Amino acid sequence: MDKLVIRGGNALSGTVTVDGSKNGALPILFATLLAEEPVTLRNVPRLVDIRTTVRILGGLEAEVQEDGDKLSITTPNEGSVTAPYELVRRMRASVCSLGPLLARRGRAIVSRPGGCAIGDRPIDLHLKGLAALGAEIRSRQGYIEATAKRLRGTTIFLSGPFGSSVLGTANIMMAACRAEGVTMIEGAACEPEIVGLADFLIKLGVPVEGAGTPTVRVEGVDSIGGADYTIPPDRIEAGTYVIAGAIAGGDVLVENCVPGHLRSLIDILTRMGVRLEIGDSSIRVWGATKIEPIDIATLPYPGFPTDLQAQLMALMCRADGIGLITEKIYPDRYMHIAELNRLGARIRKEGPTAIIHGGQPLSGADVMASDLRASASLVLAALIADGITEVHRIYHLDRGYVNMERKLSALGADIRREYDETGV
Description:
It is built from 13 helices and 24 strands. The protein has about 425 residues and is an alpha/beta fold. The protein is globular and about 60 Å long.
């Protein structure tokens, strides 16, 4: 098990290039199960979650050839219909094998998913949607088994108590591709990753309309071809490096991103006094000498994303005053608070709200990552902490960031990866 060792105090300057979207690539990889012809995916990030997905696809008889950031995938009509616990437990997006597998082979047996420990994330909306399409659903011994001779299009309301579900929307979109007739998904997620999935399905020959709005229309087809598709840039990685520049810049240029996907973050940083310059596919950020406190809440897109909450909290530790973050997507997603406090931050949680008393000096310490985005927040805080910080359990970080230590080092950070002899 590895750890990151970071000596704080270095200003970041230079250019960092964003990789392909992890959250965008995962449902698209599972959507290749629908294709009767070969599929080529480009700009696929080389991440642990991608490798796990490739292993799941291989277990479902798909042939996957890797060449750098390019994957070539061919999936036969017949084959295994089981996605096992040993792989699915590693990431929540594995549940996206359920819809396309059911649609292609008439049956799917998928372990209930795992992933980061960020609170309860039920899959009831996925199952509700599949049942509405005509699937028979059974749950036993930790597995979901879905069967259907032929799915049938219908109108499905897919929003839940915490709003729309990105993976739920993706799963139903994929299942609907082979359903008889038209499926209308109301209360659909509007995230860019859903738009990316729709673009890929359209390339496969499936008529999809309305992606990026609360109502998505999918017209089922009898056969699905192949495609050559490039994964869009990762908006969460881009946002993380923009926040890093705000915390520890310097002058940082974040390239190969879509600024329109980060409007909420750009607005928040501007209100906090961070200077930004927005290009067509880049964001330039200068470190602010004074950070204004702010009161924000995480919301479904286009609101401020929950996947940038922990990173923004690290920046708010620098603010001159008291800031508030209310987590409205995953109210328990605050395991990083205790670790930030170990670095000297002064943060407390009241219900779904974190109260950050900014301006406290941070000092290096041993901290432990609890989940993917919490890992990133600890790294960002360590960049401005006095002395050395060791971030343990960074296997979480490797699930969502390609070579973060190398990218930050190229910007001037004093950061290195070491084998963690403590085994924590």
